[in-house]
Amino acid sequence: LGESCLVSLDDLDRIICDCASIWQIQPSELPWLLKAEFGMSGRERIAGTGTSLEHFQRNWIQRRLKVGECVYFEPRVESLIELSTQWIIHRRSPGDRSQQTSQFLGATELVTDAVGQFLGSIPLPGSSTGNWYGCEAETLSGTQAFYDRMVADARQVADELQRLGYHGPVGIDAMVYRGPNGQPAIRSIQDINARF
Fold first, then answer.
1. Got the DSSP string for 97-149?
2. What does DSSP say about strands 71-75 and 31-36: parallel, antiparallel, or unpaired?
């Protein structure tokens, strides 16, 4: 997807030009998002196009960089569907060397508004067994490969959370979007909701 961390305002022009090259458009036409380091659910972000910044955008970036935060850049893409895997991460006591992994419960389709804010979830029947059906993603080419990658990548994140000591429920969101070549592509780890 092309997410990059800005550590100075000078980075932005370079990153926009590099990204525009990948998407095969002029830098002045590249739509983008800048996100605060710990922003979530469509909050703490600004949108723009090209390399010219408005005063409020420049201030928003400088305010965060001044206190040592990273500002994340990514191209604004056409979302085809947003999905989430749901997990239970079991508590492990210190010194526990068991191979108990995180428990995959299933997947949901995420319902969002026009700016990407979360509105709700629709369970995908059969998703816990790998039989992904019941949502509009069925019409996308590469559906099973997207599903398999989403679950495999989310399992790595869930297992790492367990290793770090987190336990309880967690949702790990993904997005299928239209890629630079016009074909669907997946961002398998978009958001981690570990909120016990």
1. ---PPPEEEEEEEEEE-TT--EEEEEE-TTGGGT---SSGGGGSTTHHHHHHH
2. antiparallel
In DSSP terms, 174 is beta-bridged to 83
- Contact by Cβ (8 Å): 98, 178: no
Reply yes or no on whether the pLDDT at 138 is more than 60. Answer: no
Backbone angles phi, psi at 78, to 5 degrees: -85, 110
**Chain-centre distance for alpha carbon 7:** 20
pLDDT digits (tens, 9 = 90+) for 118-133: 889 988 876 665 555 4
The SS3 assignment for 1 reads coil
Cβ within 8 Å of residue 100, ≥6 positions away: 90, 92
